[in-house]
Design goal:
By secondary structure, the chain is of the alpha+beta class. It contains 16 helices and 17 strands. The chain is elongated and about 95 Å long. The termini are far apart.
Length: about 500
């Protein structure tokens, strides 16, 4: 194509650098992108500091990685400095050579990098968007707003300090006395810490890195909750095409864990939103709590969480974006992912719907379980909830000679006036309101008395004791309390 060469069409610095500000980062994903660079530079200690000073507020990220000499620093500050098709070390979390610039410019107008490579002096370079807009040239500055920043890097054998100033996207021109913006700034930083604890939880748990924010260490938040009691069910890890590893986890039912564990286990978004696939690239979390179009989020599937881990050599297969916050599985493995997802959803539904209910078996096997309520679908496809007429208590009342005819009408009235809207409202407002209702191990005296009375009625009707006992113990709520079986004599 050389014979067709015409003019050089260089992009305008002002419009180009401002377009870098619109890649869709938020503060959490932007800082995570900087942490990626620190990990790729073999850092094991990364400190995120921030200070509210109104429009002069700043955020800095300091690591003890290998640092850079001047040539390497200029390359790192140059947009698009890496070829995305280059082979990378498996620990390299970068790809496009854009993260430092796009992540930084999305949040601030001045990016300063101070760095030191072992055996070299501490050096610095700065991009200032206002200066670029004024000069309309890609001109790096040998500038730093505060000389004390240099000392932080000087004290290290090697390392890099990223400084974000002129945080126009976060604090704008707010005065230092503006409490509303100040509180929003600090709240954003709390969100950042939660995000980093989730995204890099594998690195923190394996002690590959230590993340610190304003002197406080950031704890890992493992979405698979392996520290719960009882522990989640963990499936066998499956190796799919191109070394993609997949493992499903089924959490215990919410009623089985403490209130404190329930609050922690929901994560930043809550139990319902955290269900689904968790996609990792080299142990770095990209996507959390998303069914990737393979399944839908449902109430009964919210105990299912599935880990997918792929190596960075597969970036293009997964359509990884610059922000490293979206990834889509290649078509070649979607069928396998769908199969694993169905297994996880089915297991979640079984636990969620039955809550570990017990049945009493005899030599002929388990009798069918009789719930107090059942659901039916009418001709219009609408779910209706009916009282189970086969439930032993209800059945006895309906068949009793002493039962007033109004009882049947009362049951029908109850069925037709279930407060579904109120239940859904309460569930959406505070899921724990229902889910944390505890089923105690010991039945009440009234429940024991009711079971014994029903047992006597069955026996008086000539039903064998073993069958009478089994019918009672396989009905709600008696099935929750095996101890009741000891009273049925």
């Amino acid at each position: 194509m050389h014979q067709y060469k015409a003019e050089n069409a260089k992009p305008n610095p002002k419009s180009t650098i401002n377009s870098y500000r619109s890649f869709g980062y938020n503060l959490s994903t932007a800082i995570a992108d900087i942490v990626d660079n620190s990990i790729s530079a073999n850092a094991n200690r990364i400190t995120i500091d921030y200070l509210w000073k109104g429009k002069d507020s700043f955020i800095s990220i300091l690591d003890n990685g290998k640092g850079m000499n001047l040539e390497e620093l200029i390359i790192a500050m140059t947009p698009g400095s890496k070829d995305p098709e280059d082979l990378r070390d498996e620990k390299d979390l970068g790809r496009f050579g854009m993260g430092l610039k796009t992540a930084s410019f999305s949040q601030c107008k001045r990016l300063t990098v101070v760095t030191k490579k072992e055996g070299f002096n501490t050096i610095k370079r700065c991009w200032d968007i206002d200066f670029i807009n004024q000069e309309e040239e890609w001109t790096l500055l040998d500038f730093i707003s505060d000389e004390s920043y240099l000392k932080k890097v000087d004290e290290l054998l090697s390392g890099t300090l990223i400084i974000w100033e002129s945080l126009d996207r976060i604090v704008g021109n707010a005065n230092e006395e503006n409490e509303s913006v100040k509180n929003a700034f600090y709240q954003e930083m709390i969100t950042v810490k939660e995000h980093l604890g989730l995204v890099f939880h594998k690195f923190i748990e394996s002690k590959k890195i230590k993340l610190i924010s304003n002197t406080y260490e950031i704890d890992a938040w493992n979405p698979f909750l392996l520290n719960l009691n009882p522990k989640p069910e963990m499936g066998q890890t499956e190796l799919l095409l191109n070394n993609v590893e997949v493992t499903y986890f089924i959490l215990p039912h919410m009623s089985k864990i403490s209130t404190e564990d329930y609050e922690k286990s929901g994560g930043p978004l809550g139990w319902y939103q955290q269900q689904g696939f968790y996609v990792y690239r080299g142990d770095r979390l990209l996507v959390s709590g998303d069914w990737l179009g393979i399944e839908k989020k449902r109430e009964y599937s919210k105990l299912a969480r599935i880990a997918i881990n792929f190596p960075n050599a597969n970036d293009f297969d997964w359509n990884l974006d610059i922000k490293k916050s979206t990834a889509m599985p290649p078509i070649e493995i979607r069928k396998e992912l769908s199969r694993i997802a169905k297994i996880a959803v089915m297991k979640s539904a079984k636990i969620y719907n039955w809550r570990g209910q017990k049945t009493i078996s005899n030599e002929n096997g388990n009798a069918s379980f009789e719930s107090l309520w059942k659901d039916e679908t009418n001709r219009e496809g609408i779910k209706k909830y009916k009282i189970n007429k086969k439930h032993p208590i209800i059945k006895q009342l309906l068949e009793s000679d002493n039962t007033n005819k109004i009882f049947s009408k009362a049951l029908k009235l109850l069925e037709e006036n279930i407060p579904v809207e109120l239940i859904l409202y309460n569930q959406n407002e505070d899921p724990s309101f229902h889910e944390l209702e505890k089923i105690t191990e010991t039945p009440s005296d009234d429940l024991i008395k009711l079971a014994v009375e029903l047992f006597q009625i069955y026996k008086s009707q000539g039903i064998p004791e073993s069958l009478s006992r089994q019918q009672i113990m396989n009905a709600t709520p008696f099935n929750f309390f095996p101890l009741i079986n000891d009273y049925l004599k």
